[in-house]
Amino acid sequence: MIAKDMREMSVEDLQSKSVDLAEELNKLRFQHGIRPLENTSRLHELKKDISRCKTVMTEKLRA
After folding, report:
1. Cα–Cα distance between 11 and 44 in angstroms, integer?
2. Where do the structural domains in the chain lie, given as residue ranges?
3. Residue 3 pLDDT more than 80?
4. What is the pTM of this model?
5. b/e sequence 35-45, b meaning 16+ C-beta within 10 Å
6. DSSP states along the chain
7. Is residue 13 helix, strand or coil?
8. Residue 63 has pLDDT above 90, yes or no
9. Cα gap 41→3, rounded to integer Å
10. pLDDT at 19
11. pLDDT digits (tens, 9 = 90+) for 24-47
């Protein structure tokens, strides 16, 4: 997800999106522990998206 799109979301939406992304990341980490993933780059993408969500939330709360 692009940060520009995240800036248009509300803080509550960003919090729920961050929780959803964290759950997906945990599921993929668990699956990767059992067997190799087909697309391991998705783990990296999810971490970046979670960071973007938290950054935009911080920006909105400080404004």
Report:
1. 23
2. 3-62
3. yes
4. 0.90
5. eeeeeeeeeee
6. --HHHHHTS-HHHHHHHHHHHHHHHHHHHHHHHHS--S-THHHHHHHHHHHHHHHHHHHHHH-
7. helix
8. no
9. 19
10. 97
11. 999 999 999 999 999 999 999 999
